[in-house]
Amino acid sequence: MKIQNIIAAGLALVGLTVVDLARADAVVDWNIITGQTIPFATRPGGSPGLDYAMVHAAIHDAVQAYDGRFEPYAVAITGASGSPVAAIAKAAHDVLVNRFPAKTESLDTNYDAYLANHGLSQDDPGVSVGELAAAAIIALRANDGSWPANPEVFTGGTEPGEWRPTPPAFAPMAVPWLGSVTPFTLKDPTQFRVNQPPPDLSSRKYAEDYNEVKALGALTNSARTLEQTDMAYFFADNAFLYWNRALQGIANT
Question: Residue range 161-184: average pLDDT?
Fold first, then answer.
């Protein structure tokens, strides 16, 4: 009897593990599809973060409809049934279609193929769960201040401590409006600003910081280690693209 109980418990654990892995795979899969969908050339600066955040907020609420382990972000969905994988796919798909309507056809194709490849149909009850999750985050972020019709053009200034354009393009700031967008998790954009100004230009602290940046930031004969140079190249590239690639690797591992 004890052996039978152990076998039954083991089989139950294996079953749960397979379901959990399927959910995790679906999240990673649609994270990759999100990265393939976002037109980074027209999503400058930190603006792709808004797209990723909305997709994953919808996915989060779709998963919580089944698991109930954490607080929902935009909506609590009760009575969830069907496949969580279908819910995840539908949640991500609908947000992406809302964000990038010009890519609706390719997203529909990806979505249909994804369901078919996982043995799921369009009428799986999980689809309705994902639809509700997506609709909630879309409604919540409808007037969050992102992508204003007449965005501010900010060219900075020339005084010490003021932002200014940099070579080679000397272009205006990419998305100055981003600082006014309703945060996803912070209570206010200014919540964690430091309480004191930068060190005075004539102070020893300023001189030390300046010399450190000069020594480590030099193109040639730098004081950087090889590891620091690799890290600099990593962070200097497309942050969202490479951060997501790194996080995908961690999730898969």
Answer: 92
Every domain of the chain with CATH number 1.20.144 lies at 2-140
Give the other-Cβ count within 10 Å of 238's Cβ.
Answer: 13
- What does the mean pLDDT of the chain come to? 88
Give 103's DSSP letter.
Answer: G
Given a contact cutoff of 8 angstroms between Cβ atoms, the answer to whether 35 and 110 are in contact is no
For residue 166, give every residue at least 6 positions away whose Cβ sits within 8 Å of its Cβ, in sequence order, or none.
none
DSSP-assigned letter for residue 58: H
Q: So what's the pLDDT on residue 62?
A: 98
Whole-model pTM?
A: 0.81
- Cα 236–Cα 43–Cα 154 angle in degrees, nearest 5: 80
Q: Nearest 10 degrees: CA dihedral of 60, 62, 64, 70?
A: 20
Spatial CB neighbours of 146, under 8 Å, sequence gap ≥ 6: 47, 50, 177, 178, 181
| CATH class in words for 2-140 | mainly alpha
Residue 57 structure tokens: 């907020």
Residue 128 to residue 115: CA distance in whole angstroms: 14
3-state secondary structure (DSSP) of residue 171: coil
